[in-house]
Amino acid sequence: MPTPKTFEDALYAILAAASGVAALVGTRIYPDRAPDLFTSPYIVYQLISGSRDQTQESAISLSTQRFQLDCIAPASSSEAKILAAEVKNALHGYTGTIAGVKVDYINTFDGPGGFSETTKVYRRIVEIVVMFVEPQ
């Protein structure tokens, strides 16, 4: 039995297909945690919360989920801000079916940014809320 598709599959596909994002990070887009010691920009995303609604008329589940996307840049704060802007451009208002997932909409929100003394990288957070139909 094939693995069911998830919104995380779709999120990766949307970001990897966006030319502005791909120009900055290529395929360095990771769920939950990135490999150690990166010297190039990258994105880490994680599910923050979610809910599922099911109608009486249909077995289709409509889910709403909130994700945090950390846009990481080792070089500068402006590099992290540019990456965050490209992520928002790729995601805000997105609708369609990608990676087997029907996305009804994505809203983006600006999150905080800063510099980590521990890892020596700059970070800018983009939060999204997505509504999608769960694949059957």
C-alpha geometry: elongated
Task: List the total number of helices.
Answer: 3
State which percent range the strand residues make up: 35-45%
Number of distinct beta strands: 6
Q: Helix proportion of residues, in percent?
A: 10-25%
Q: What is the makeup of the main sheet?
A: 6 strands, mixed
Computed over alpha carbons, the radius of gyration is 16 Å
The span between the termini is: 13 Å
Class by alpha and beta content: alpha+beta
Low-confidence stretches: none
Strand sequence of the main sheet, in spatial order?
1-2-3-6-5-4
Spell the H/E element sequence: HHEEEHEEE
Arithmetic mean pLDDT: 89
Quick recap:
The protein has 136 residues and is α+β, with helices and mostly antiparallel strands.
Structure explained in plain terms:
The protein is an alpha+beta fold and 136 residues long. Helix content is 24%, strand content 45%. It has helices at 7-17, 19-25, 77-91, and strands at residues 29-31, 42-54, 61-73, 96-98, 101-116, 121-133. Strands 1-2-3-6-5-4 form a six-stranded mixed sheet. A hairpin with a 4-residue loop joins strand 5 (101-116) and strand 6 (121-133). It starts with 6 loop residues before the first helix and ends with a strand. The mean pLDDT is 89.
